[in-house]
Inverse folding.
């Protein structure tokens, strides 16, 4: 039986999602909990994708196979009873045996949070990026509109991405909104390259600071040159908000 689970996590204390030889990860914690439920049997989970060290998730998705017949709601309670408080299963449901949490993704939504204040925000330091000084919301919104559509995002991909094949992705929605001193960047797309959202945000912040003009986004995309884009924004402001399937 194949199960699909939605999980939220605070990535502050973890070396990312994916299991690593050295460092505590989200995947390892979930698989440890599943092993206890399965009396020591190794259960591997497959997620919609990886998140880096310090990155958070509101709605990450993963699947796993089991021979246990447990009601869906009981899966949620059993896993949450075994997981640390910074990892929380939101739902578990039975899916078809050919469902794949990674390959069946139709869209993902990421959000990135920025605080624009002069002083450090003590209680947001692990969940947002502090940018001192004001940002031009209108300029960033203009640039967001140019990000939407199908493009080759090579310029917004980390040099050590390791992707073989096309770097063309479709961004269905790119927005920036302001709530007092907080700016929220939202990106929904068919898929994302390694560090793509963080590089997009770093570039948009430079536009917001007046260091670049909004129309430079088009030039950067056409260049396919990582050196033409802005700095990579730090991980703590990034959240995987949701994953969409058929």
């Amino acid at each position: 039986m194949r199960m699909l689970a939605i999980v939220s996590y605070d990535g502050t204390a973890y070396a990312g999602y994916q299991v690593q030889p050295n460092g505590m990860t989200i995947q390892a914690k979930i698989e440890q909990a599943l092993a206890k439920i399965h009396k020591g049997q190794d259960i591997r989970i497959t997620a919609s994708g990886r998140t880096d060290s310090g990155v958070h998730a509101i709605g990450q998705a993963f699947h796993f196979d089991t021979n246990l017949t447990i009601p869906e709601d009981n899966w949620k309670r059993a896993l949450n009873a075994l997981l640390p408080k910074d990892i929380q299963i939101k739902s578990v449901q039975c899916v078809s045996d050919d469902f794949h949490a990674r390959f069946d993704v139709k869209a993902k939504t990421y959000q990135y949070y920025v605080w624009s204040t002069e002083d450090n925000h003590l209680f947001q330091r692990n969940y947002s990026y502090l940018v001192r000084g004001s940002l031009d919301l209108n300029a960033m919104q203009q640039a967001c509109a140019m990000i939407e559509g199908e493009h080759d995002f090579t310029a917004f991909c980390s040099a050590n991405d390791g992707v073989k094949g096309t770097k063309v992705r479709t961004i269905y929605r790119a927005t920036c909104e302001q709530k007092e001193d907080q700016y929220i960047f939202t990106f929904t797309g068919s898929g994302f390259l390694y560090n793509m959202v963080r590089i997009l945000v770093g570039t948009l912040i430079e536009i917001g600071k007046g260091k670049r003009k909004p129309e430079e986004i088009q030039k950067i995309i056409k260049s396919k040159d990582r050196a033409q884009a802005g700095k990579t924004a730090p991980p703590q402001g990034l959240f995987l908000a949701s994953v969409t399937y058929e």
